[in-house]
Write a structure and sequence with these properties.
alpha/beta, 6-stranded parallel sheet, 4-stranded mixed sheet, 12 strands, 21% strand
């Protein structure tokens, strides 16, 4: 389809929406809509189990992540991450070959301290293990929020059978609402990532005879390397 055809279809759809709202073409959005977009208000937070002091939120995150079949290992610094990745792969008899995000938070780690074969970029069918950063973690459910972008290709979150995610303890918050607030603050108005992914444990399905199967639509293993950087921030 040509660009002009796409534009015409878009204009037609937007025109029907404007008509249903009783607005004409080129008419500015109501002030209430503009204010809501520029200063979004948080929704009610329910349940309240994650409204804790931050150290307790970190503990709750780990508890909830493990409850949905993720594994979690705490390290004290970024330099410990490669050794933890190597340990996890060896303990599970997995290939000593990984594909990392281009993001320097992961690709810039001292991987040469290990015997792992490391490459960086978009994941392909041959990549069995990926290592990526996480934007944030949610204590309420043990969920991870992963952003797409040049430094964080989406395929690394979905294609490899084993997904290893690096999360800073200081990036753990209590609820989903807090993640959205942090994202708006970091990215600025109108600069949201093209795609983001909420991950709560390994991929799973119960479609077949109501029996849970891991790895149905994505990784069958999720290992979270939690970096205890909170002491540095005190």
């Amino acid at each position: 389809m040509s660009t002009s055809s796409n534009t015409s279809s878009r204009d037609a759809i937007l025109g029907r929406i404007r008509k249903s709202l009783g607005r004409g073409a080129g008419e500015a959005a109501p002030v209430s809509v503009t204010e809501r977009l520029s200063s979004p208000k948080a929704n009610p937070v329910v349940p309240k189990r994650a409204q804790l002091a931050h150290p307790k939120q970190v503990e709750l995150f780990e508890e909830m992540a493990k409850s949905v079949n993720a594994t979690v290992a705490m390290v004290v610094s970024d330099n410990d991450i490669p050794r933890e990745v190597a340990r996890f792969l060896a303990d599970h008899n997995l290939p000593a070959r990984i594909k990392t995000s281009p993001d320097s938070a992961v690709s810039g780690l001292p991987w040469s301290d290990t015997a792992l074969e490391v490459s960086t970029g978009i994941a392909g069918p041959e990549d069995a293990v990926s290592v990526t950063p996480s934007f944030s973690g949610v204590a309420e459910t043990g969920s991870l929020m992963l952003r797409s972008g040049v430094g964080t290709p989406y395929t690394l979150n979905m294609l490899p059978d084993t997904h290893i995610v690096v999360l800073k303890a200081s990036d753990i918050v209590g609820t989903y609402e807090e993640v959205w607030a942090r994202l708006r603050e970091k990215e600025g108005h109108g600069n949201m990532p093209r795609t983001f992914l909420w991950v709560t444990g390994p991929s799973r399905t119960g479609d077949i005879e109501q029996t849970i199967q891991l790895g149905a639509h994505g990784p069958r293993r999720l290992h979270i390397v939690l970096v205890d950087d909170t002491k540095e921030n005190k």
